[in-house]
Structure formats: structure tokens, C-alpha cells
Amino acid sequence: MNISNFKGTDMQLSGERIKVTYKIFGEEEEALKMAKDICLEDTIGLPENLIPGNRISSQIKGTVDSLESPESEVYYAVVSFAVEAAEGELTQLLNVVFGNLSIKPGVQVVKIELPESLLSLYNGPRYGISGLRKLLGIQKRPLLSADLKPIGLTSEELSKLAYELALNGIDIIRDDHALTDQTFAPFDERVSMCCEAVRKANSITGFKSIYVPNITAPYDEIFLRAETAKKEGAGGLLICPGLTGFDAMRCVTDDINIALPIFSHPAFLGSFTVGPDGISHSVIYGQIVRLAGADVTIFPNYDYSFSINEKDCREIVSSAKDPLGHIKNMMPNPIGSAGLESLHENVNFYGNDVILQAGRDLYQNDIGENCIRYRNTLLGIVRK
Amino acid sequence: MNISNFKGTDMQLSGERIKVTYKIFGEEEEALKMAKDICLEDTIGLPENLIPGNRISSQIKGTVDSLESPESEVYYAVVSFAVEAAEGELTQLLNVVFGNLSIKPGVQVVKIELPESLLSLYNGPRYGISGLRKLLGIQKRPLLSADLKPIGLTSEELSKLAYELALNGIDIIRDDHALTDQTFAPFDERVSMCCEAVRKANSITGFKSIYVPNITAPYDEIFLRAETAKKEGAGGLLICPGLTGFDAMRCVTDDINIALPIFSHPAFLGSFTVGPDGISHSVIYGQIVRLAGADVTIFPNYDYSFSINEKDCREIVSSAKDPLGHIKNMMPNPIGSAGLESLHENVNFYGNDVILQAGRDLYQNDIGENCIRYRNTLLGIVRK
Fold first, then answer.
1. What is the rounded CA–CA span in Å between residue B169 and residue B50?
2. Claim to verify: residue B368 and residue B299 sit in the same structural domain
3. Subunit contact A102:B242, Cβ cutoff 8 A
4. Tell me: the pLDDT tens digits for B310-363?
5. Which one, of B318, B274, B340, B173, lies nearest residue A100 by Cα?
6. How far apart are CA A324 and CA B95, in angstroms?
7. Chain A positions in Cβ-Cβ contact with residue B8 (cut-off 8 Å)
8. What is the spatial distance between Cα B59 and Cα B57, in angstroms, rounded to a whole number?
């Protein structure tokens, strides 16, 4: 038996292509070799001369559409693949784009472009920026978020904290990503008490603050937690797709019975972006997260670490907000030191469509007063 | 309200600790700062002076157990955390170890040690090396695997290929990681036909070759595929935990109704290991994969790329095979160029408890003859 005897599919392919831009580091010869490897590595997995069947070799395998070198030892290769290689599965799309390729040094995914036929298979964010604003009753100003923490507090203490934050004008009160189902504050108990606390504060203030519990959980408990949160009256759900897989987030987003805004948190995703290889910030925190249905993308702000800068953050925002067929946009939610003094600069940088975090200065001395300080500062900026 | 007024949990903690060794790059001052950050970043999330409650600050937060510098600008910090911070959830364990920390440059996870109380909450591999050998009826020799590929072949062609591979002595016939549910060869049809083909070949040879389909799939289809594979008579299941999340793999492993050997594939995991930061090969492909229940860990061999070397592979094998409480060991399955000429060296390197891949030389000219060549070479090595 010889591989060249196989004819392969006789299906008529659509001709539509997934276009991926890769940044390749090295000399021209290595770049060319890498570009050709990319065409085969996660689709065909055979050397060029062994590809069987006309359609497989002419249409299904990746092709190098362009290769450009804007600077020494840096190449940008646009490689396209048949949409049929990935069908509608997000897991397989990520595999085609960067499966085994992730193991090779010297290459980074910097852009993914999907044709309408493939985009149409994804729902994307359920609410997007305007839907989230409607839920919160806030038309134009930037939103303000804060985390409940630390682990080790009891559910009662966390709900008191949630009450204080809501009462003093924090719009979005999120579980810290380290709060899961610890016996100190079990998920069901904590969520019930925090939902109740925020409802009570809202009844006093007239605000529409929301509590967003963290449903990052074992595979078989994610939906149980989402359903509990929904039942108790949570206003959104936080998930770390680096820990659950991106498709778990998509699945929660798509569930009509849950139908809550989804907040994507960057925990365990940093390794994709920390080096020159991997996947760019804008693809991970922008394109992939948006395709996977997040209404809000939480990502490290440019003051977070040396591995992310202003350019990266601008590109994330583009990927979050630029038109993308029928897919709604996402609200950016940068996190970092998030001191009071950073609010001005961050609104200038991100505009009004942003969620800013009450961070470093929130827990120093009186928490309620700090909330008011964050809120008033933010309102002051927008009035200008 | 002031954070220092919170008392935190009054639970009696076990005192048992999760110990994690981090490799930190930089000068002593930076290393010390990073070690202290690690203690707080993914558990408490507050600065040291703001940690409320005696138990939170004395027991729940991470502590630096040791900090050593074996060479210039390289430090090893052992940081321990209360087991109660992670409880039994694999997602949360990974978050405590490397959640937001993954975003920071200059730090790599090189070892995770769990106390018995936490280990006892994980089942680990269902079969392990001896269980897999029993299923395959092979006592001592190294096993031989090969991939079905490329995408674009029809189910009928792939099943003919599976038949040829099984008939000529390949022990483990796996779907390539790029085969999922494409219309060229839909999952149900392909699995049914390939299972039947391998059964038929076994009935002729008397071997116990197995077919291992790829169940990497959208979140809500993983179990459907596992169940279909089981029903059709698959001999194992391939999953890419980088795409599904590690806990999806654990969940499939733990399901008593499926109870098939689990093969963990490295697709989309490379970014954790490709740079100096991130997570070491032995932790990703050894410790985490084993805790998540893989019977076989597929990983890049030292000839695969410049980012993995012989030392890395030796460490993966240690993490896969060293005693670990009640948790069974895993069979290493290195993949790379996997030419015929590499078999000798690889058996010398890995020993008999290894699955070697019929790789580069398998698809050149007659596939059946190449299988026999791979098999005879391997049998010859063991006889020595």
C-alpha cells in the first residue's frame, strides 16, 4: 500500500480560507522553511512530496499567500487554510492555527482572519458593549470594577465586602480568580449571600451594580456553577479560559438558559504571550476570546509587567471592538496596578468604552471611602 | 469598612502544603521580590500589610520555604501553599501554581509536590504502564505507534490505512491530532470503520493492536465522542488537553463507563515550554498530565525542536514513572522525526517502557513493508 494511491475526498470545497499571519524570527531561509512547515504541520502532517489526492494537495493544505520582511530577521507570513480543515469547532481552529506549531521556537501568531461562512458558525458575545451598558443602566461613562478577596474570608465577610462595594458605587463586583469553592466560602453559599448583598445595596442606591462570581471549575461542574449563579441572581459570570479551555467559555455563553454577560479572565494564559514566540496579546485576549463569546475581556494593562506594552493594549482593543461580521464587540477591562492616579491616563488611552479596576488604592484604609474616590474621579474625567 | 477588621476563617487548617519550585531569572533582589509576589499573586491578591485574619496571613498565604542560587542570575524558590487554597480542583491547583503569575516574565514552574491528602483526591491514570501492557498483551518490549493521516482522506481510505498498519504489526494506531470531525471523514463513520478494520486485522494476526481515535472536540461533544468510540470498540482515546483543558481529560479518565486508556497529546501546549519562562516540560508533560489521568503522555522528542533537549526528556520520564503515592505511572510516547534509524538510540535512552512512533520513514513507498521494518528493528533491539 502506497500513500500516493489514495485519492482523498471528492467533496467540492468552498474555496474559502482561514488566513493566519505568523511572525517568524530568523534569516530568510529559515523563514521560508517555517512558512512551509506551517502549511503542513497541523493539517496534513506529511512532507510535501507525500501528500495524496489532488484536492488535499491543492486545496486542503495550507498555502503561503505572502511573506514579507519589514526588518532584519523578522518575517510576516500569511498562510491560509481551507475552512473545511477546521469546520466549526473552536478547538480544531486553534489546532490548525497553532497546535504542534506551538512547540517550535521562533514563530508567533499575530492575526487570524475568518471568512463569513466560518464566522457565521460562532455566536460571539451575547451582549457586547451596548448590551452590557443596557443591563447596567450606564450610557456613556467608563465602568468601574473591583474584586472580592482574599481567599480565607468567610462567605459572610465576602458578602459584607460586596455590599460595601456596591453601596459606594462599584458597578461590577467580581470574585477574584482565586475564589472558587474553598470550604472557607463555598461557592453556593458565597454566591447566594453576595447576590443578596448587592441586591440590597442596589435597592438603596438605585444603581444596577452586578455581582460576577467565578465559575472556573472542574469540567463537570462549570455548568452547575453557572446555573446556581443564574438562579441566585448573579449579573455576570467570570471564567478563566486558560484553565477551562476556550470552548467551555463558548458553551456557557451560548446557553440560552444562562444568558449572562461573560467575563474572560487571563489566568494561566500568560505563557502564550510572555516571550517573543507564542500568540500575540491581541489574538489571545482579543480575537480568540471574542470568538469564544466573552462580553468582557480582562487582560493585563501595560503597567502590569514588562511583557505587555501600550502597543499590545491598543491592538487588543482593536481586536475587541473592530467590526467582525455579525459578531458583537467586547468591553476591554485592563487590570494592573490600577491605582487612583492611573484613571485619567487610562480613560484617555482606552476611551469611555472601558471597564477600569479599583485596584491598588481600594483596600488601603476605609474601603467605602476609596470606592467613592474611585467613582468620583472617574465621573469627573468623563464630565470633561 | 477596613480590610483589617475581617477575621477570616476559623476553620482548623490541615497544615499540609502544596510545594512548588520556581526557577527565577535575575539578580538576588528581583528574585526575592518575585518569590514574595508568588506567595500572594494567585491566592491572596493583596499586599502583605493588608492581609486580614491570623489564619489567612499565617497559613493560607504562600510562604518561601527556601531560595537558592546555583548559578549567576538563576534562583530556585520553593514556595508552599495551604492545600485548602486549591481544595481538590485541578483547575484551581493550576491557578494557585501559575494563574496570573504566567503573565510575568522571568519565572518558570519546575516542580510541583502534593501532600498525600491532596493526591488522594485524584485517581490518576486508570491503567498505567502495566495495565496498558496487559490490554495489548505485550510483556516487555517497547510498543510501536503510528498516526492515521492526512485530513482529506475519506473514512474508507483511513480505515484501509488502519487495517494495513494493524496487519503489519503497529501496536497503537492513533488518529493524527488534526483528524476531528471533518466532513471528509466524519467522526462516527471514521471510528466505526477504523475499529472494524483493526478488529479484522487482529483476527488474522492474533495481535491485540488498538485504534485510538481523537476525541478533542468542543466542550459539549467530548463525552459524546468518547461514548461513541467506546461503543464501536476503540482501544484508547486521544485528547489534546491544551485545547480542551486538562480537567476535561481527567473527567474522561475518571468515567467508569468509558474506562479506556487515555493518550495525552501536546498540541497547543508548546507555548508553556518554548521559552525560558512558563512551565517546564517535565511539569506539563509529566506531573500535570499524570495528575490529570493520562495513561500515555505524548511529548516532543529531543530531536523535535531547539526548545527541548535530552535533559528535558529525561525529566519528563521521571515525572511520568517515579513513585507518586497511589497514582499509577504513565507510558512515555516521544514524537519527532521518528525515523527508523532513531529506534536504537531511543530504546537505549528511554528503556523498554516506551511507545516509539513509526514516523518519517513510514509513508515512503510501501507502508506495509515499512511497518514490518519498524517492528522488526524494534524487536531486534529488545532481543539484545
1. 64
2. yes
3. yes
4. 999 999 999 999 999 999 999 999 999 899 999 999 999 999 999 999 999 999
5. B274
6. 32
7. 152-154, 157, 184
8. 6
Range of the domain at A266: 128-383
Residue B22 sits in a domain whose CATH number is 3.30.70.150
Select the residue of A45, A157, A308 nearest B149 (Cβ to Cβ).
Answer: A45
Say what the ipTM of the complex is: 0.97
Entry field: residues in chain B: 384
- Among A41, A48, A9, residue whose Cα is nearest residue B363: A48
| Joined grid coordinates for residue A66 | 505572502
CB atoms within 10 A of CB B26: 16
Q: Which of B43, B190, B243 to mutate to test the interface with A (most CBs of A within 10 A)?
A: B243
Q: How many CA atoms lie within 13 A of B52 on its CB side?
A: 22
Question: Which cell numbers hold the place of B148?
Answer: 492515521
Q: Which helix (H) or strand (E) holds B203?
A: helix B187-205
Q: Looking at residues B253-259, what average pLDDT do you find?
A: 98
CA angle A175, A178, A182 (to 5 degrees): 95
Q: How far apart, in Å, are the Cα atoms of A249 and each of A185, A261, B236, B251?
A: 24, 11, 27, 17
Three-class SS state of A45: coil
What is the rounded CA–CA span in Å between residue A3 and residue B364?
8
Q: Which of A119, A152, A168 is the last residue of a domain?
A: A119
Residue A52: other Cβ atoms inside 10 A: 22
Query: Of A76, A97, A119, which marks where a domain is finished?
Result: A119
